[in-house]
Design brief:
The chain is mainly alpha-helical and 309 residues long. It is 77% helix and 0% strand. The longest helix has 28 residues, at 187-214.
Amino acid sequence: MGFLLRIVAHVLRKTQPASLDRLPASSFFLVSAVFHYLGPALAVLLFSHVPVLGMAWLRIVTAAVVFAVWRRPWRLFRGLGRSRRWLLIQLGVLLAAMNTLFYLALARLPLATVGAIEFLGTIVLAAAAARSRRNVLALALTTIGVAAITEIQLAGQPLGFVLAFGNCLLFMRYVVLGHRIASTPDGIGQLAAAMLVAAVVVTPYGLGAALTAFTHPVLLVAGAGVGVCSSVIPYVTDQLAMARLPRGTYALMLALLPMFATIIGAVVLGQIPTAPELAGIGLVIAGVAVHQAPRDNPAEKPSCAPPVK
């Protein structure tokens, strides 16, 4: 756990020390994966006190405030060209919609199921990079594993599955746009600017639902904690991982997300996995182990990106 704590401490600074560069790229992904579902699991515990849309607002706005104090992204935004500004606006709108759909799905389905469906879109991204039989096998194993974890029963919560698949499509787009800003000198600063856009987008439909938390300081602090765990730490470590990993490798590593969703769902929410879900986790891990990263294909490298500052 030592390296995990080092990463969390370093991402809260503006500079990136040389010691951070010596950590394996997979360690950044590990931190992202843990917090990607730990924050939402904590949010689920608060749904009985704060409406779902209110929790989505607290998550996004808290992250925007942290990023604003930390990076002052408006200064960066003013110096960008029109195309780059448009990219950040797109990412901000996407973050608001993706997080909202994710929470609406979590209110209806187990965390492991939503996590598994969220991963399905990344199969497409990984398939685009699969140029060997070994990688095709890896994709087959992870696909079967995700299907086993999901155990889709549309008759149970049809709206929940619609919302989860909508989140899946947006998450796939997030991976693409995230890689584009990770390939620039200040990807985290641009992420901060996008989060401010997301805060503006979510406010008209989320603020009213969040007002309950303002009358209970404990709920407000808990909601702020969800925002840091859900949209600050994982998104920053996403940037650090994306800047170091080829897109195809990163996309297939996302196959580990259902495993983390299942474990965190069981520990935090008491959502105990079934035998098929456990078998699916094993297949997902096997797929990631089989996957072979491309070595000499420039198109699969993270655009020779300089380290994120």
